[in-house]
Amino acid sequence: MTDSTLRLRQVCLLAHDLEWTTGVLCAAFDAPVVFRDPRMAAGGNLTNTHIRLGDSFLETVCPSDLAWQRSTTQTRLLERNGDCGYMAIVQVPDVAVASRSMSAQGDSIGIVSGSWNVCPGSPGSGLADVQSGPYVLGEPLPKTPRTVSGVNVQFHPRDFGTLAEIEENWPGQEVFPMNKGTYYPAGNTWQNGVDARPHGGVTTGFAAVEIAPRGVDPIEMCERWMRGLGAGCSIDASQPATLRLAVGQTMRFVEPEPGGRTGVVGVDLWAAPGGPRKFESIDICGVRWTLVDPPAV
Predict the structure, then answer these.
(1) φ, ψ dihedrals at 54, nearest 5°
(2) What pTM, to 2 d.p., does this model score?
(3) 153, CA 20 to 30 Å: which among 75, 96, 105, 136?
(4) CATH number (domain holding residue 137)
(5) Which residues of the chain fall below pLDDT 50?
(6) Which residue from 46, 44, 41, 42 is spatially nearest to 13, judged by alpha carbons?
């Protein structure tokens, strides 16, 4: 049985121009910017935006001038691929379990980076006095009354076809739809706009992500993700390169086009109900975005 918390919660893009790309995405998907991570900007190499699609998030990351001088991983990827899909982020029910099983897949490169965050307050109350530190493989998420907490753990693209991240946040991540629980990557004030505007006029959130792995058979890559995420996801024998998550979401794994990009190459979006579709599919930031019918209730 699929675990209801096992969801594709965020997709991350990599772009040369943060403001231009963000403006195009906001206009195309009728969605607001809800967060810019000041701690990322303070690091000197990257800036970002988070756009809210229902209770899921679309992040765009852009290297700084200093990053270009230093020749970072992100600038080298932009030089090779141009603007492109960068990362798929899946919400998991237990990061302690999933971090171990994800680390054991592929070449077992393990954690690329990870951190924990704890802040006094509640979902929507902001991030004043937030504390954070490096995540240690297999540690459980701290859950203390009158706090909000989260853990993010990233894994190497060679093991998962793209930079991969798992997230556990507390409290409230199990609610769907119109989630207003904790979700640290997008800050801790985005929840306050959900009731007034649950979603825009284009999409209610992610239906699928399409990943083209480099040098690994798509079926094998699909099985790696299933073994890594563990109980709660499944593969239909008739579609061996498609992983089923909660609420009708899927992860599809495909062969790269000849000379084409690898990593995140496509995203399906649930079409917003009650109005005409603004487009069927559209290319933005090196990714093909396709509107699909929402699952039957």
Answers:
(1) 65, -120
(2) 0.96
(3) 75
(4) 3.10.180.10
(5) none
(6) 46
Domain-located, residue 94? yes
C-beta of residue 290 within 8 angstroms of C-beta of residue 269: yes
Q: By C-alpha distance, which of 165, 169, 186 is closest to 55?
A: 186
Give the model's pLDDT for residue 231: 81
Query: Which of the listed residues 173, 193, 213 is the one where a domain comes to its end?
Result: 193
Q: How far apart are CA 53 and CA 273, in angstroms?
A: 14
Q: Mark out the alpha helices in the chain (DSSP H runs).
A: 18-29, 38-42, 65-70, 73-81, 95-103, 157-160, 218-229
Lookup: tokens for 266: 């496509």
Identify the H or E element spanning 169.
Answer: strand 163-170
5 neighbors 93 (Cβ within 8 angstroms): yes
What does the radius of gyration of the chain's CA atoms come to, in whole angstroms?
18
Let me know how long the chain is: 297
List C-alpha distances in Å: 128 to 148, 188, 215. 11, 10, 44
C-alpha separations of 82 from 62, 79, 142 in Å: 12, 6, 39
DSSP letter at 172 equals T
Tally the domains of the chain.
Answer: 2
Per the listing, tokens 């709660």 go with: 232
Structure-block tokens of residue 105: 């897949």
